[in-house]
Amino acid sequence: MNVQNSGHGPVIREMRITPIAITDPPLLNAAGLHAPYALRTIVELETADGIVGVSEIPGNESTDEALRLAEHIVVGKDVYQLGRLQQELEVRFGKDTSKDRGDAPWDQRRLVHVFSALEVACLDIIGKLVNRPVADLLGGRMRDAVPFAAYLFFKYEGAGGKLGFSVDPNAIGWAAARQQQAIDPEGIVAQARAMCEAYGFQSIKLKGGAFAPDIEVACMHALHQEFGEAMPLRFDPNAIWKPETGLKYGREMESILEYLEDPVRGQENMAWLRQKLRTPLATNMCTTSFDEIPASIALGSEDIILSDHHFWGGLRASMELARLCTTFGRQLSMHSNSHLGISLAAMVHLGAALPHLPYALDTHYPWQSEEIIAGGPLKFQDGEVPVPAGPGLGVDLDRDALARLHQQYLDCGLKMRNDEIEMQKIHPKWTFKKTRW
Ligand SMILES: [Mg+2]
User: Fold this and answer.
1) Cα 42 to middle of ligand 1, angstroms
2) Are 366 and 176 in contact (CB under 8 A)?
3) Within 10 Å of residue 17's Cβ, how many Cβ atoms?
4) Would you list the domain boundaries of the chain?
5) pTM, entire model
6) Distance 112 CA to ligand 1 centre (A)
7) CATH homologous superfamily for 136-394?
8) pLDDT (tens digit, 9 = 90+) per residue, 27-42?
9) Which residues are catalytic?
10) Which pick of 126, 178, 198, 389 has the fewest CB atoms within 10 Å?
């Protein structure tokens, strides 16, 4: 039967692409400073029978344009035809290469984002059709709740959004704490205490690369002193260290780290350092695509791959990556960017279905103060998110919030992420350097 344009059943009738802007505090990283708003794109697919599937990906004008260009490929497809959809998108846009990933601290490849958005929305629809959660479509849940880590940032004072570098005097608890400046060990420990108290996290990650290594490593030692041996700690300077810096400070943190994330740039440098440190090395920057797996294995560049379904081409691709990791002695965990509840729900379904989950996953979720899913933010219990109940992703779009955050996107004027430009508003001579220390 030709299901293309058959006009009934699980055939996609309409695709809606809505860019949104969400309030984001002034967080620091190796690439500069977070803008007052982070961008996301919400994709809705609606079938001929009126079933709607949703997904969320990092916002970028170029990805939105690619999604619009893909519309004629998507509309008329059966939601089960994911292989065919991917193949036609590859023909239309060309396969992403590892070169497309480039040297930026975040991923701007187009096809992986486009396919991830479409795949997750299709799986949401399929889940609703067969009355099963997405985790069941990925092989079934291995666990009922998925652990996440506290994700700490150096930051300037401020709430982001309209408040910018000002704070909301009425905020309390974590909502107040996340507005505080954190540029030294005292500030980082206070941030960690407040976040762990609010969410119950049982692992801690600090995003570094913002200050000189001795300051940042002092923060890791302060966290170790504050939380003790039982709290697993990770540190991620976003590949901004030279190999000798990675070796010096990697050794200084050897006794306190669960893993060290992207201390240096490139698979060769990671492999060199990995030979010299006992601490496991993790990456979301040196091995970032299936194309890079052969070199990763040949060189031995990392112990842990931090997958991200938005960057690896969807949830099923991430399950395939898990199998490769098992085969080649890697562990798999998860990377994150500023995101809302649709992405979190997808991450939880994937985390629930992964055969092995040795590490708590990354999430930026506590930094966000807005939401687009009905019923408000997903709840954490002791640092874990239970798999959402209900078929598909188990979350529904709050259409009023979607309209409001889309208006915020139009008003804020941002079209893509550029942390360097934001940093230059504070420090005009600051420039991004791939390797700084
Ligand atoms: Mg990272």
Assistant:
1) 24
2) no
3) 17
4) 3-135+400-412, 136-394
5) 0.95
6) 18
7) Enolase-like C-terminal domain (3.20.20.120)
8) 999 999 999 999 999 9
9) 207, 335
10) 389
